[in-house]
Amino acid sequence: MSPSDRATGAHTFQVDLRGLVDLLSHHLYSSPRVYLRELLQNAVDAISARQAADPAAPARITVHAGTELTVTDTGIGLTEADVHTFLATIGRSSKRDAEGRFEGVAGARGDFIGQFGIGLLACFVVADEITVVTRSAATPDAPVIEWRGGSDGRYTITTLPSEAKPEPGTTVRLAPRADAAEWTAPARVVELARDFGSLLRHEVTVTDDRGGAVRINATPPWAARHGSPVARREALAAHCRSTFDFTPLDSIELDLPLVGLRGVAYVLPDAAPPSRRAGHRVHLKGMLLSDQADDLLPEWAFFVRCVVDADGLRPTASREGLYADETLAAVRDALGARIRDWLTGLSASDPALLHRFIGVHHLAVKALARYDDELLRMLLPWLPFETTDGNVTLDEFARAHPVVLVTRTVEEFRQVAPIAAAAGLGVVNGGYTYDHDLVHRLPEIRPGSSVADLDPGTVTAHLDAVDPAAELAAAAFLAVAREVVGRFDCDVALRSFHPTSAPALLLDNREARHERTRARLADEADGLWADILGSLRAEVPRAQLVLNHLNPLVRRAASITHRDLAVTAIEALYGQALLLTRRPLTASESALLNRSFISLLDHAMLGHESAATTPGPTGPPPGPDGTAGPHHPQKES
Ligand SMILES: Nc1ncnc2c1ncn2[C@@H]1O[C@H](COP(=O)(O)OP(=O)(O)OP(=O)(O)O)[C@@H](O)[C@H]1O
């Protein structure tokens, strides 16, 4: 402390080494498995440092999984002074200088994976002691040094005879604790080494006590030479199968030289829900950083899973995620553009594949096309929509229908589609996610086509009016009908339409229903609430019950003169049309259905009883009180 420090009362932080080692080694990483990643990474960096000065230097990493675990490299090694400086100082790294710049030729070339000077501590998750035996390649006459470090922060340094390590390089040795033995068992070590190191650029081998040796890395398929484009495609598909366990619909090669990125985006063969973002495997300089990276691609690209290896992206300190900086944002945009290009290029290069792709991923494409004019122009004609002509593309549909009508909800579509189709109208179901918006953009892509929202008025206008005499004959019945359904804010019209088997059509839409509910609440409420709801009141939109004059049942109903039966008939027709809309019913609608059903049953049984008691088919059925009468009076249920 300087005199001036004393004067101002300045002090220096003290570090409790045990606590720090515990924090970094146990709490920074998500799983003990990372110990092997840190050891492999140090070995790779040591080889890069040696090769920067001597490109012909050997480049081998051997992991031995036996009673002890060792990782041996042919890298740069350390002198005794290096050991004190780098191994024994937490946060000090030979790969960066005091200003945080990468050190030396290898550092300048961006060859190093490590940078924080804390990685070795990950070994304390599985062992209480780390032993490093090292011989420097940079200082050939430097002795072999053994460093032993404990998780309590103590370390010793011993000079060993030259035979202890005849060649330059480093061996790190761990004696796993009993409770961590599962992480160093040979089979587990092979699995971990494959997972982390499959793309490492130096030879990595795992050996065991029985003399077994497994090579865990090979040239990735995108960097290897292939005999033909077909062989290349097959090699990529095989890589996808072994990495992700699916056969891709296609493989999109990724290459961004500016950040030294190469890899592949594999197109999922099945639809993935947009909410489930696919985890990508991101390697930095060959070493796996994450198998669940979700910020590598734009959100819309949820139909691919990537494997990439990049030099220019930065890891977070736990080395389990990508550091969210401008480079990552630029990489995300560039990879997004690449995937978009693949998609747009497909329509020219492989329409059959595009069809298969759209069959599986049309939701993703629709989501994407809403914000991307070029893609929309390219792909809208290919996208399937539910229409009155079946499941067809918009292009096909627009060719057959100069005016494309679109519903806002699936429910409206279900309701009017058969009748509209019979009346020659072309209707698209706009009720599914994105579809309504997309259909409305059709005129931008197909000049001359026109799109309109389907409303009840449009449908009714296309249904044939009945002749005035028939209308007049049905006037009494229609008056009862208007009175009965008027209570539900519904009008009644008599029209002729196909199919003749449909007795009635209820034209209604969700907005109108909401508006009616609001108006009813305003009527029921009092005080301030009624004023507020009342001030919102617009003209209350009414639904429309269209009775089909071509339907034999409706014709017979139209001639009913008995009021009670007419009420039951209209309630039954309205109830049936209501059910066909497939929307939830209100309490009063359910009560109406119930009532009409019971009344009809009553009428049917009455007819049956009268047939049994009355001789001759022409006699009128008796009333409920036993008196003869043409019809049974309506009963309230
Ligand atoms: N196998 C090795 N060969 C040579 N030097 C090594 C080896 N392993 C570790 N070192 C030295 O020990 C230092 C500390 O290693 P450590 O793994 O803790 O951090 P790092 O690799 O520098 O950075 P990071 O925390 O990002 O992994 C390294 O900078 C390096 O100088």
TrEMBL record:
Keywords: ATP-binding, Chaperone, Nucleotide-binding. ATP binds at E38, N42, D73, T170. It holds the Pfam family HSP90. It comes from the Bacteria. Coiled coil: none annotated. GO terms for molecular function: ATP binding; ATP hydrolysis activity; ATP-dependent protein folding chaperone; unfolded protein binding. Residues 609-637 are annotated as: Disordered. InterPro entries: HATPase_C_sf, Hsp90_fam, Hsp90_N, Ribosomal_Su5_D2-typ_SF. The keyword Nucleotide-binding applies. Gene3D superfamilies: 3.30.230.80, Histidine kinase-like ATPase, C-terminal domain (3.30.565.10). Belongs to the heat shock protein 90 family. This is HSP90 family protein. It comes from Kitasatospora camelliae.
